[in-house]
Amino acid sequence: MMRFAILGVLVVASICATAYGHTDLTPPQVNALLDAGENVVIIDVREESEFCDSTYTPPGHISGAINMPWNSGYLQGHYGELSPDDSTIVVCRSGSRSNTAANFLDGVGFAHVFDMLGGMNAWQYETVNCVDSSVPGAGWITTSGLALGPASPNPFKFRTEIPYAIPAGHDPARVTVSIFDARGRLVAEVMETDRGPGSHRVVWDGTDTQGRSVTSGVCFYQLAWHGRTVTRRVVLLR
């Protein structure tokens, strides 16, 4: 019953969006969609310094959110990396920039745009941080000690290297690195093996589970270990 209620939020909101532009969602509605595993894309339009600010309340950002800043013009220059047919939730700090950015996405043809009311100021749920000094390099995303670094190169054409780190104090355990497309569909299992604590790297060659070349676009690489996951974005250019 809950799943149908949540789906109803998207269906009704999508109808409204078609007629009137983007639709507002409250933070509890957004959290319910995420908890239900709905296929939504969250775009955080704050600047990177805000997106990764661990001193702010709440710290960091919503897990899985893509940072595409509005004020510095990144979203305006890179919105083509996103699918205009996806359900896209726009977030900022207070709700002002997200409203402007949602209007922009409406104007360039995105069909299902949602603006989170109140921004991160109103978010009372789990967040993740970008930087953890216990792992090598700045710009890593961490959750409960599990860390995922930036793919390099990004964008890439033929192969990209994905760094990750397992927290200390654990015996070797199963680790998976998976690739998903912008719609959340599994593209490839890059690695599934046992790994102990420390820093590690794995390479994705841009092919799917059948060894076929993946077409250009935004993909997401996800690190999974002991029931914890960390996800980041990578762009494939053919």
TrEMBL record:
The keyword Signal applies. CDD domains: RHOD. It comes from the Bacteria. Residues 1-19 form the signal peptide. SMART domains: RHOD. The keyword Signal applies. Residues 36-129 form the Rhodanese domain. Keywords: Signal. PANTHER family: FAD-DEPENDENT OXIDOREDUCTASE, PYRIDINE NUCLEOTIDE-DISULPHIDE OXIDOREDUCTASE. This is Rhodanese-like domain-containing protein.
